[in-house]
Design goal:
Among the domains are: 3-43; 76-109, no CATH class. Helix content is 55%, strand content 3%. The protein is built from five helices and two strands; from the N terminus they run H-H-H-E-E-H-H. It has helices spanning 3-8, 11-50, 52-57, 94-101, 113-122; strands at 76-77, 85-86. The chain has a two-stranded antiparallel sheet with strand order 1-2. Strand 1 and strand 2 form a beta hairpin. The longest helix has 40 residues, at 11-50. The radius of gyration is 31 Å and the shape is elongated. Keywords: DNA-binding. Residues 66-111 form the DNA-binding protein H-NS-like C-terminal domain. Residues 40-74, 106-128 are annotated as: Disordered. GO terms for molecular function: DNA binding.
Amino acid sequence: MRRQDLEAMDFEELWLLHEELTKILAEKITAEKRELEKRLAQLNQPDQLGGAESGATEAGTGQPPRRKYPKVVPKYFNPLQPTETWSGRGKQPRWLVAALQSGHTLEEFKIPENGESSERNAGGREHS
């Protein structure tokens, strides 16, 4: 259809054309989405066949199970709020960045290893 033809049409004809185009586009989008979902399902099938136990742990989600990482013990703590700790991995927490900028050293915030291990192993009691 040429632009002149569209400009010559009145409002009602243009509106009907708009509705018809919207309907056709919605049908085509739905069909394309269905086709893409079929292709995605085919691509995911070999992964599920390779790991039988992975399909059992994440039943229905379509995602492989998350890799289990070991628990990381905190190495540094905030003396102003001892519940705030940092393991030494990733981005430094704000309280540590502020303290380091004010002249403190990282070693000042280190959790003592002997005190930490006795608390963890004995539930807060000290060994004799």
